[in-house]
Amino acid sequence: MNQVLSIIVPAYNEERTIGSILDRLIAADLPAGFDKEIIVVNDCSSDKTGEVVAEWMQRYPFIRYDQHSVNQGKGAALHTGIKLATGNYIIVQDADLEYDPREFSILLKPIIEGHADVVYGSRFIGGNPHRILFFWHSIGNKVLTFLSNMFTNLNLTDMETCYKLFRADILKSLDLKEKRFGFEPEVTAKMVRFPGVRIYEVGISYYGRTFAEGKKINWKDGFRAIYCIIRYGLFD
User: Fold this and answer.
1) Nearest 10 degrees: CA dihedral of 30, 198, 82, 202?
2) What DSSP character marks residue 75?
3) Are 184 and 94 in contact (CB under 8 A)?
4) In angstroms, rounded to a whole number, what is the distance separating the alpha carbons of residues 222 and 207?
5) Residues in Cβ contact with 219 at an 8 Å cutoff, skipping those fewer than 6 apart
6) What is the pLDDT of residue 217?
7) 224 three-class SS
8) For labelling, which of 34, 106, 192, 194 has a CA lying 20 to 30 Å from the CA of 213?
9) Which stretch of DSSP H or E encloses residue 219?
10) How far apart are CA 173 and CA 156, in angstroms?
């Protein structure tokens, strides 16, 4: 029996890109012995995100869908997706076009070879394409990763990456609380405490977008991330 990769797609006001990312997810080849499960969680979008997903579900009945009645944040959408996931492994795919699903095979390789339980896709290592955008965002990311590493004793290069691939039993065992962008430092701090967990990092591409193109994270999320690094690194 094939193993299943559950792909959780949190979506909030992504009507411009959700159809394209679903096409890419459907087309993405997985290594032999793997099937995919796509779970879209609509975090109460005010645009036509839900209608676009409904069109794709008519064409591809294996796409699963859930919708929040009120906007709760990316982390809350991921909590919903994690509960719904039935696969052996779970990965997050943002509904924008910043990350390339064709690279799932790169992330799965350390797992297939029996080395890893968790794999992070780093935008800062390897020779893959990276769009050149915001200097201060890159500095902020490095600061958050550095602080996270201090508390977790890891040597990650990109703690804030969207592409985090987990063995499903590990991720489902974590008591996750953060409902917005604090999900990244929280899941990192709690995952590292799982007994015997083996963590790898691989280089991935990054096709970042500007705020005009729909990017949502801002400086307030950075301060929340610092709070979460300290809270879950020391006290929770």
Assistant:
1) -50
2) H
3) no
4) 21
5) 140
6) 63
7) helix
8) 106
9) helix 219-230
10) 22
The DSSP symbol for 234 reads I
| Cα gap 43→66, rounded to integer Å | 9
- R_g over Cα of the chain: 17
CA angle (72 as vertex; 42, 81 as ends), nearest 5: 50
Q: How far is CA 4 from CA 19, 34, 79, 173, 182, in A?
A: 22, 6, 19, 18, 27
Cα–Cα distance, 91 to 114 (Å, whole number): 18
Tens of pLDDT, residues 35-69 = 999 999 999 999 999 999 999 999 998 899 999 99
Helix axes 183-191, 74-84, angle to 10 degrees: 50
**107 is written with which tokens?**
């992330």
DSSP helix/strand/coil, 203 = strand
The 89-92 sheet, strands edge to edge: 63-67, 34-42, 3-11, 89-92, 164-167, 118-122, 199-203
Token pair 């604090």: residue: 182
Which tokens is 190 given?
A: 């709690």
Residue 91 CA to residue 118 CA, distance in Å, equals: 10
Among 69, 59, 73, 4, smallest CA distance to 35 is for 4
The amino acid that residue 89 corresponds to is Y
DSSP annotation of 70 reads S
pLDDT digits (tens, 9 = 90+) for 159-196: 999 999 999 999 999 999 999 889 999 999 999 999 99
The pTM assigned to this predicted structure is: 0.91
Query: Considering only CA atoms, which of 216, 202, 205 is closest in space to residue 17?
Result: 216
